[in-house]
């Protein structure tokens, strides 16, 4: 897919306050600091489009970006930021749950996972909840530039093995790096494919 336009539209504190539009939405979720905002900037080739930070907990609202006037990319706050207060964690998790359960336009959720870490219970629990709720999702490994190719392969295989303990089928899986732009075409082409499928039905 060629990106002709990408613009920030709104930051919303609740799903019901999100832009009133019927366009499909593709949302990015994952632990704080996993690289959600960086990945959005890499895909759109605009450095400051989504706010990034070396300190976890930067994104605290639901951020909508309109792409090619046809679909939305949605940057969600991260889950599991241990250093935030309990109240703040509860508020963010309520906001994320509200969006993913109530937003009808949500077409696909991309769950981001840092390739350097072994499968973590917080991510596995979140994936399990998605599976049970029937929310379509794909897995996106981030920061692939931080490991060697063989270490990346080992981590992916490990993840697949863990998931296959609980699931018969694996979700779509992408390997990315905001630094090297690895995975950009694969991810954008996948979104295009899903978009086309939804237009046809
Ligand atoms: P929150 O909004 O706090 O939930 O974080 P986030 O998931 O949006 O993470 P963000 O994009 O702000 O990135 C966090 C840190 O990881 C920043 O210091 C980024 O520069 C770094 N980072 C993100 N993606 C990559 C990547 O692909 N490679 C490398 N080397 N660093 C990355
Ligand atoms: Mg962010």
Structure commentary:
This protein has 201 residues and is of the alpha/beta class. It has one domain: P-loop containing nucleotide triphosphate hydrolases (Rossmann fold, 3-Layer(aba) Sandwich). 37% of the residues lie in helices and 21% in strands. The protein has helices spanning 36-44, 86-102, 121-133, 149-166, 184-200; strands at 6-12, 25-30, 62-67, 71-75, 106-114, 137-142, 173-175. Strands 1-3-4-2-5-6-7 form a 7-stranded mixed β-sheet, with helices on both faces. The radius of gyration is 16 Å and the shape is globular. The two termini are 20 Å apart. The model has no long low-confidence stretch (mean pLDDT 90). The structure holds guanosine-5'-triphosphate and magnesium ion (MG). Magnesium ion (MG) binds next to helix 1.
């Amino acid at each position: 897919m060629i990106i002709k336009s990408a613009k920030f539209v709104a930051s919303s504190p609740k799903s019901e306050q999100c832009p009133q539009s019927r366009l499909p939405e593709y949302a990015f979720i994952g632990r704080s600091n996993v690289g959600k905002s960086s990945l959005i900037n890499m895909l759109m080739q605009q450095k400051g489009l989504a706010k990034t930070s070396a300190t976890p907990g930067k994104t605290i609202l639901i951020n909508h970006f309109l792409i090619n006037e046809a679909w939305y990319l949605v940057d969600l706050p991260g889950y599991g930021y241990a250093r935030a207060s309990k109240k703040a964690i509860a508020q963010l998790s309520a906001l994320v749950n509200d969006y993913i359960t109530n937003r009808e336009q949500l077409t696909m959720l991309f769950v981001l996972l840092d390739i350097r870490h072994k499968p973590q219970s917080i991510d596995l629990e979140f994936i399990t909840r998605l599976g049970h709720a029937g929310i379509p999702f794909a897995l996106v490994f981030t920061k692939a530039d931080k490991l060697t190719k063989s270490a990346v392969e080992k981590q992916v295989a490990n993840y697949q093995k863990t998931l296959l303990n609980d699931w018969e089928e694996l979700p779509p899986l992408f390997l990315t790096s905001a630094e090297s732009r690895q995975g950009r075409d694969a991810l954008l082409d996948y979104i295009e494919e899903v978009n086309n499928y939804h237009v046809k039905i």
